[in-house]
Amino acid sequence: MSNMINFGIDLGTTNSLIAKFDKGHVEVFKNPSGSKESLPSVVGFRNDRILVGDQARTYALKDPKGVASRFKRKMGTTETIKLKVGSKTPVELSAFVIKELKNFIHTGEQIEAAVITIPASFDTVQSNATKESGLGAGIKYVHLLQEPIAASLAYANKEKGINLRNSQWMVYDLGGGTFDVALVKIIEGELTVVDHEGDNYLGGADFDELIVEKLIVPELCRRGKFTDLLAQMKSEKGKYNRHWYILLHHAEEAKIELTTRTSAEIDIADYPLEDEDGNSIDMLLTITRSEFEAIIKPAIDGTVEMMKRILTRNSLRPEDLKYVLMVGGSTYIPFVRKRVEEVMGLSVNTSIDPTNAIAVGAAYFAGTKEYKDASENSAAPNNNSRLRIRTSYNRNTQESEEVFTAKFEGDVSDLFYRIQSNDGSFDSGLKKLSPRISEDLPLREGAFNLFTFGVFDNHNNPVDVGFDSIQIAQGRYSVAGQMLPEDISLVVDDVANKDTRLRRIFAKNNVLPAKSKMTVEVAKTVVKNSDEDVIKIIVVEGPSERHSSTNKPIGILQITGQQINRDLIRGTEIDLTFDLTESRDLTISAYLNGTGQEFSQVYKGQKRYVDSRLLATEVIELEVKIQSEINDAANLGNFDSVQGLQNLLSNVQGLIMDSHVLAHDDVTDDRFKLEDKKRKIAQEVFELTASKRLDTAKNSYEEAKEEVGSLVSDNGNDREKHIFREIIAREQTFINSTNPERIEIATRELGQIRWSILVRMPDFLVGMFNHLVEKRTSMNDQVLAKQLIEAGRVHIGQQDWDDLKQVNSRLWDLMPSDISEADDMRLYTGIV
Amino acid sequence: MRLYYPSWLTSKKKEIVDMVHLPTFEVPKWAFTLLNNLYEVERKLATSGDPGNATRNVLKMKDALAEQGLFYEDPMGEVFKETRTDLEATITGTGTENLVVVEVIKPVIRFGEAAFSRVVQRGIVLVESKVDLKNN
To answer: I want to staple A363 with a disulfide (CB 3.0 to 4.6 A). Which of A22, A26, A61, A334 is the partner?
Structure first.
């Protein structure tokens, strides 16, 4: 049976990548921890673990006996790298890198065959060694491809229309730590590397060091008194060793910034530096692009010299080349491109992503290359294992670390295990499997900690042991932790619907204790010293998608005009904090941004708070609501509902009488009974009218969908089309739900698209303008309105739609609509 | 007029959790820029004093981003081991055992909510051996 290879691996000196060709496209896989495409080609052996990538790189400088890097340069030699765990060959170390890259494949596919890239300078022995490391990593079929060819393929596949026949070009590859340049030619229809040059110790990391050494340190020495600042920075025992690393990071950022700007600031004010006299040094530095270019010029000129040598050797003139293809992250630097262009008199080609071009090119090649699947028993995970596992660990804990232990029965030789946290914060590395293993797992406080457990053979292929995940709930999820039985919500005014709605503070099943914050706005100005104007922060318990009257009140914090030290203007923000203890004590705190005052009150979980005056208002409001629902139901001919609602109406009317006679300071539990009755009636009303609200929500959604659909297809931009498609794609998740709010959210989203399209359309803008002109007599500032209207007419004449949009919005602001809206509504809580 | 928000920003909590589990989920670069700078502002206010109580505004901005599932954590002073993958560490000093975080250049940025979140930016830190720290 033959298959396409599809996988391409860029096995680099400093970084490696893996990509896959799939149906005409190439995906570069990302590291599951850290989300980067590249994996540092560094292997570490520490505390019986095998670490590959960033984790190993951390120790590369300080623990050379435990960590190996840059071993690609030794490929194909007899040299071994002596480490604490014994000697390792470059082939073995590269195999570890490839095995780790297999881990990037999130689709869970097994990789049977791959194209692995090699530098143009690799001879047969080095190439064979690379192939061997691929096989050693469990890849059954390895095809090699030269890096400059891979880069050229990435380019050819991107610019499909390009004709490269009878042409030749150079591939200039300047990466993080190595430089290579190659002459590529099409000979008899085949891409061939004709000649090459390179420097194994030149790359972006050297430029970062140059910035610190040549620009930053001299400047710091000008600002303060230091005798040997650079030496003190570079020495691991030096006084300023930390600053060396901090500056290197900032130098790298500045270097990146200088690719798009002419100057970059290095601001390390929060890492203070004192000179020898104890004076603190100003740590804000500016580096200009020309300063940076001056310090890297010798290195770049060196690379250009290598290009010239290739031309001379091959008796070519620069004009014989089609272009220079730029690859490697350091070719983002404008000076590199400019210098190559200037000195060589050649155009540089920067159309491919220089950081992943080689992996992408390798994958394109792999997508065209067939291989024969020799092994018949290559079925995905190895299920034939006779291993049996017994695990033991606490699923709930209060500790910040938990021990995971497992016992294995069966043959564990040549097997490894690995535990990784699903949130990307922990990786045990590969460890040798023994009949009994134990691992300390760090836990995140108050979270569900999920880990993936895997057993692997020596090719890093998974071995199925029937156990693959570890779940530990830390802290508040322990057995003792109490869960909230219902949502807890804040009641706010719903000005548009002249009603109230709920904003959820804590969700059902949230584990206590819990804390939450919310910012609300004052809906109507509260005048200092007035009794009338009150803000009510009402916290209720029950389903948050229902109406507040169906929820149980658990706490209310009132702020009156008497309590504030100045007027609280409409629109002022109030910061609310809600604290719920394990015993369900609720603390509501409100910080008034307008007056700078803070109010706070604690409500004991065992007690209930029912304000008798508020209860009386609620009962009356409920009566009004039932009346209007009866009318609606009658109009729709829904007589069953009318009957039910009428029964509820008579019940609620009884409650009005009862609540009316209830004294404000009533000490009996009558008000609790009344509140219970009211709530039950409200719930029944909610249930009786649920289908009506659902139908209304569905109808308005369908109407909006139809209207917005045609608007989007005629006038929408790509972004709007995308959002519209996205809403339609998840339609099934809300349209069949029993919760009208979810449908309403989608309708509102459609409304946003509708609005964003309309405000671009001249007809709409003109129509809106004319409408506002008609209303001008009621506007607040007649002089300004007149000026704006005149300006608007000029804009229409000149078809200047952007300016007309501005005029419309300013005219809109002059409309007194806000005041009338607020007057129409009897605000219930005073907050929105 | 309403502003346009990318669809991932308007998502509700449940969708946030769903996204956390998507291996291909990507946080836009501007969000990292915003959070990293917010972290720096917060730290500068802490070290240089904050007479105008700007920390309050920083906290509100952090809350607003956390509501959309994005938040950062300062690993300063935490223990570093080779099994930690939420930090990109550089070792200063001579020792390589008993390491603790001594400088934070970039914080850890996570996406999700309290009960489950994913590291979307590794913290960039300097670590040093406790032994070296004691000798200094």
So the answer is: A26
- Cβ atoms of residues A40 and A53 within 8 Å: yes
Tell me what pLDDT residue A823 has.
42
Asked if B110 has any chain A CB less than 8 Å from its own CB, the reply is: yes
d(CA A585, CA A603): 6
Interchain CB contact of B135 with A (< 8 Å): no
User: How far lies A510's CA from each of A475, A477, A626, B62, in Å?
Assistant: 13, 9, 34, 22
Is residue A33 within 8 Å of residue A40, measured between CB atoms? no
Q: Which residues of B91-127 are buried (b: 16+ CB within 10 A; e: fewer)?
A: bbbebbebbbbbbbbbbbbbbbbbbbbbbbbbbbbbb
Q: Searching chain A, which residue's CA lies closest to the CA of residue B89?
A: A58
Q: What span, in angstroms and rounded, lies between the C-alpha atoms of A492 and A548?
A: 9
In whole angstroms, give the CA distance from residue A445 to residue A685.
43
Question: What was the pLDDT predicted at A39?
Answer: 94
Residues paired with residue A198 on neighbouring β-strands, in sequence order? A180
Tell me which chain B residue has its CA closest to the CA of residue A40.
B88
Low-confidence ranges of chain A (pLDDT < 70): 1-2, 34, 160-161, 164, 188-189, 373-385, 475-483, 496-497, 509, 511-512, 582-583, 604-609, 663-669, 817-827
In angstroms, what separates the C-alpha of A290 from chain B's closest C-alpha?
A: 26
Q: What is chain B's mean pLDDT, rounded?
A: 82
> Closest partner residue to A249 among B1, B102, B105, by Cβ?
B105
pLDDT at A7: 95
By Cβ distance, the residue of B85, B91, B110 closest to A62 is: B91
Specify the pLDDT at position B5. Answer: 34
ipTM over 0.85: no
Q: Has this prediction a pTM greater than 0.95?
A: no
Predicted confidence (pLDDT) at residue B75 exceeds the cutoff of 90: yes
pLDDT at position A467 is 85
Residue A51 with chain B: CB contacts under 8 Å: 82
Domains annotated on chain A, with CATH: 2-152+357-372 (3.30.420.40), 165-350 (3.30.420.40), 388-477 (2.60.40.10), 488-609 (2.60.34.10), 610-757 (no CATH), 762-824 (no CATH)
Q: Smallest Cα–Cα separation from A727: which of A751, A700, A761?
A: A751
Q: Is A710 on the interface with B (CB under 8 A)?
A: no
